UniProtKB/TrEMBL annotation:
CDD domains: alpha_CA_prokaryotic_like. Belongs to the alpha-carbonic anhydrase family. Its EC number is 4.2.1.1. The keyword Cytoplasm does not apply. It catalyses: hydrogencarbonate + H(+) = CO2 + H2O. This is carbonic anhydrase. Keywords: Lyase, Metal-binding, Signal, Zinc. InterPro entries: Alpha_CA_prokaryot-like (IPR041891), CA_dom (IPR001148), CA_dom_sf (IPR036398), Carbonic_anhydrase_a-class (IPR023561), TAT_signal (IPR006311). It comes from Pseudonocardia zijingensis. Coiled coil: none annotated.
């Protein structure tokens, strides 16, 4: 993606984006994720393209536990902070559009507590929809989850029967289209993966309106990771967070 296109789609300032993609990037401050988002300092960006979601009503997901047990390579007893429960999406089944570019949904996974902080608040669970762009770029749509839902969501389908660290893969069916809130306003910034190798750049779209899921789903995931599986927030290092109301 050329620099002007990336700036247009995601609201990344030209100077910051240049530091990410030019040879001098090694000397630039790291642009890591997650971050603490403060709505009062986010820059309104109504000119940015809207988020268009193309998620199906019915999709089969393959759910498995992703292990990264460096301290326990032969066993299944350590719940590492960089481990997650991941649901793989069939190729070509779902995606989003921003402007004239489509990003294919590869998988979704969860972190507890939420990795991004919003105005001083930290939600119990954060869900990441990981997408790949036409040029191989990574875009993550982040959704904050809170208890109180009546159940039946795709999140509940995945979290309702969590696989153990060395347990078998599960297959579940869910409604991806209903997994997002109606309000698709987003905070947009340029960052990184939140697990090793923390690669940059990753384009982040963070939905500020949380989605309610069943209380048992939240409690079940937190019980699976009693010490959490979230990375601490990282410094902005000059980045500007933009807000696209929708």
């Amino acid at each position: 993606m050329d620099l002007s296109r990336r700036t247009l789609l995601l609201g990344v300032p030209t100077v910051a984006a240049t530091a990410l993609i030019t040879p001098s990037a090694a000397a630039a401050p790291p642009h890591q994720s997650p971050i603490h988002i403060r709505s009062r300092t986010a820059v309104p960006a109504p000119h940015l393209p809207a988020l268009e979601v193309d998620y199906p009503r019915h999709v089969d997901l393959r759910v498995h536990y992703v292990r990264k047990d460096e301290d326990d390579p032969a066993g299944c007893s350590v719940r590492g902070r960089e481990e997650v429960v991941e649901a793989e999406v069939p190729e070509g089944a779902a995606g989003i559009r921003i402007g004239d570019r489509r990003f294919e949904l590869l998988q979704l996974h969860f972190h507890t507590p939420a990795e991004h902080h919003l105005d001083g608040r930290r939600f119990p669970v954060e869900q990441h929809y990981v997408h790949r762009g036409p040029d191989g770029e990574t875009l993550v749509l982040a959704l904050l989850l809170t208890p109180g839902g009546r159940g039946g969501s795709v999140q509940d389908a995945v979290l309702g029967g969590l696989p153990e660290e060395c347990g078998p893969e599960r297959e579940v069916t869910g409604d991806l289209a209903a997994s997002l809130p109606r309000d698709l306003s987003t905070f947009r910034y340029q960052g990184s993966l939140t697990t090793d190798p923390y690669s940059e750049p990753v384009s982040w779209l963070v939905l500020p309106r949380p989605q309610e899921v069943a209380t048992a789903s939240v409690e079940g995931y937190r019980a699976l990771f009693p010490d959490g599986d979230a990375r601490r927030t990282q410094p902005l290092n000059g980045r500007v967070v933009q807000y696209r109301r929708q």
